[in-house]
Structure formats: structure tokens, C-alpha cells
Write a structure and sequence with these properties.
Distance between the termini: 28 Å
Strand content: 15-25%
CATH architecture: Orthogonal Bundle
Order of helices and strands: HEHHEEH
CATH topology: Arc Repressor Mutant, subunit A
Radius of gyration: 16 Å
Largest sheet: 3 strands, antiparallel
CATH superfamily: Winged helix-like DNA-binding domain superfamily/Winged helix DNA-binding domain
Number of helices: 4
CATH class: Mainly Alpha
Number of domains: 1
Oligomer: single chain
Helix content: 55-70%
Length: about 110
Amino acid sequence: MVAKNNSFYKMDMLLLSALRIKDCYGYEMVKLIYDLSKGLVKIKEGTMYPILYSLLKNEYISSYDIVAGRKIRVYYHLEEKGRLYLEDIISDYQTMIDGINHVIDYKEGE
């Protein structure tokens, strides 16, 4: 199991999952996650960027610039190392959810 702070662990999983769909710039990633979660997950850009920088440092993602009009947008791309990390944290997350469900579904006498 990956030993990580749960909130960063979930954020890693969300951001990498968005990048598994397509390369995105920051606001686009926030909007994609919001839309796919049917409005249930709203990430603040100020929370997202330190995690993106950590993912970059660990070489799970890479970045490249695209000029759009007068702006330079930094796009993020999921690397193979990040795909493997994502598979690991999804597996850990699903195991944790299974354990939680066992606890909350427990009925005395079973």
C-alpha cells in the first residue's frame, strides 16, 4: 500500500486520472474533474498546483507550453511512470473502500 497523506493521495489519483483522459492545462483539469464528478468534486487551483509540481518532480507527469492567443498555457501530460503509479493508488484506494464497507456494513452476529 502506498504510504501517503490521504488527501494528497486522493488528489494524485484525481489529477492523474484526468490526465489519463487527455493532456490538460490547470483550469481545464479542474473543470474536467468537476464535470466528470457531476459537480461533486471541486478542486481549487491553489490546492492543485503544489500537487502537480510534486507529480512533475517525481516524473509521473511532464509539462509543455502552448501559445494560445496572447497567453502561454502549460499543459500537463501523464507519463508511463505516472500510469503505473496511478494503477497502484487506484488499487490501494479500492482496497481501502472495501475495508471501510466491511466496517460500515457489519451487523452484530455475522
